[in-house]
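Lay summary. Proteins are chains of building blocks that fold into shapes, and those shapes determine what they do. In this project we predict the shape from the chain. Here is one chain we studied, written as its sequence of building blocks.
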Amino acid sequence: MQRRSLLALGIASLSLGSRLAQAQSTWPSRPVRMVVPTGPGSSLDLIIRATSDRLSARLGQPIVVDNKPGAAGLIGTDAIAKASDGHTFGISFNGPLAFAPFLYQKMPYRLPDDFAPIVMTTSQPNVLAVNAKLPVQSVAELVQWLRANVGKASFASIGNGSSSHLSMELLKVATGTFALHIPYNGSPPSALSVATGETQMIMTVAPALLPHVQAGRVRLLAVTSRTRYQPLPDLPTVAESGLPELKDFEAIAWNAIVGPASTPASVVERLNQEFNDALRDRTIAERLIGQGMTPTGGSPQVLARLMADEATRWGPVIRRTGITL
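And here is the predicted shape, written in a compact code that computers can read:
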């Protein structure tokens, strides 16, 4: 009797394990949607499109790119958090994944509770750039110009609360200068505003700026990393400006794949492995590096720690600047 009960229990356990294994092995069972909270041509969009063909081949399903720009990435990132079909994930960045709770009185999602961290994709410094007609050639000259032209300057960003926005706010606080913030939906339109003179300056990642630099409409002044940026080795850092108030300046942008909190651990593991493999692929890596991004990768746990550490680091900075959105 006891043996029959144990046998029945064993068979039931095997059956359950078999069903779970089968469910895992059949994922994905339909196209995988990747939400991008910025517009086409942005850095985040480039990352997903650079990896989508390989990912599709490995998963056996098409990758559908769904651009949802707006609200400095909150709209698209919220769509990732609220997805419930088991096949929707996305890419986001440090603004919506670390800064947002300190910027908004009301959030559409909870950090970190509403997300399953999957993998960090890339990191890169912002680049400080100005309209080529602005009479400055360095960070020190820009600070001097801002002090002499109070109320006449504006700066673009890729959106409220983004690294692009906060990096410039940090520069303003450190130097005691002022420039009016003009947010845009993503890097292409914000970079274009500087190129046309609609705004005078910007801090954002390099890819959107380089075509305007080559056209002679935008001038690069510095990178926001602590050390020089390998793709632009002749460009000094903000910390190298010679201004004592900027000697410790650093602001890095990063991007990551996340899913809704309900994502099964097996799916997180599968996507983590596939994205890490894609980021190590020589062709993909060279494409990303050519766009000014450094492929990163790593475990979900590393990404979770990064999200927590960035919130701890930037929360006091945001409070000090008094920014609320």
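What the prediction tells us: Confidence is low (pLDDT under 50) at residues 12-24.
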